Amino acid sequence: MKKIAIFVEGETELEFVSKFLKEVIGQKNISIDSYKCFGGKKTNRRDQLLAKSSITDEKYYALIYVSGTDNQVNHDIKRKLPTLKAQGFNQIIGLRDLRGEQNGRKMSLTDLPKLELASKVVEKHCSPLPTHIVIAVMEIETWFLAEINHYACIDAKLTKTQILSEIDNLGFNPYSDDLTLRFEPAEDLKKLYQIVGKSYSKKREHRERTIECLDYANIYINLKNQIVKLKELVIEIDKFFN
């Protein structure tokens, strides 16, 4: 059985990655367990089971850790590394974003090179176990916003014509703008849904609705070619399954 450990910032990322893995390889072909990590860097981190798969004999196994905050993803990878090596894991992926604060200020795209450098240090530390940390800019909702096929699933009235008629109110065009430059994509997604009286937030019911509506074939085949960081994630997942 091939094993991959994926460390993510929050439960939105957990649910997206779990769904994406199942869509890529087929739900019956992979077992997925998930844990949530608690505690700060100066205290003993502990892991709480969130969900355990009943499938134990499939070809592929994914262990997903929710770090709670993006600045703990790298730390948790290093913390769990000895265990993962001992258990024969084949690969590690980290997924974090630029949303949040650093040194008392909100992070922006200018912080990306510094975070990528820190990620490279962790990746080297994990060698020879293949490790890659993906930094979604600004947050994973950028990918949701760019997956335009899912709008009609959220509401049949959320058509391209309707959205384009609201461009002035939205302040962006999801069909032509570079959405990776949007500073608060989760808020943009909320504004877009509000055109038809719906909303988006980190609440479970909202995020799960969006994650279920996403067109994963479009993400895997087309959208990855528009968003560099999404392509990084797809490439790493492809490595695991090949």
Describe this entry's structure for a reader.
The chain is an alpha/beta fold and 242 residues long. It folds into 2 domains: 2-140 and 219-241, 3-Layer(aba) Sandwich (Rossmann fold); 141-213. It is built from 11 helices and 8 strands. The strands form 2 sheets. It has a 6-stranded mixed beta sheet with strand order 3-2-4-1-5-8, with helices on both faces. Strand 2 and strand 3 form a beta hairpin. Helix 1 runs parallel beside helix 9 (204-213).
Order of helices and strands: EHEEEHEEEHEHHHHHHHH
Shape, principal axes of CA atoms? globular
Number of strands: 8
**What's the alpha carbon Rg, rounded to whole Å?**
18 Å
Helix content: 40-55%
Question: How many domains comprise the coordinates?
Answer: 2
Instruction: State the secondary-structure class.
Output: alpha/beta
Kindly estimate the percentage of residues that lie in beta strands according to DSSP. Answer: 15-25%
Low-confidence stretches: none
- Please give the order of strands in the largest beta sheet: 3-2-4-1-5-8
Class of the largest domain, according to the CATH hierarchy? Alpha Beta
* Spatial separation of the terminal alpha carbons: 13 Å
| Second CATH tier, the architecture of the largest domain | 3-Layer(aba) Sandwich
Give the integer mean of the pLDDT values: 92
CATH-defined fold name of the largest domain: Rossmann fold
Please work out how many helical segments DSSP would assign. 11
| Major sheet | 6 strands, mixed
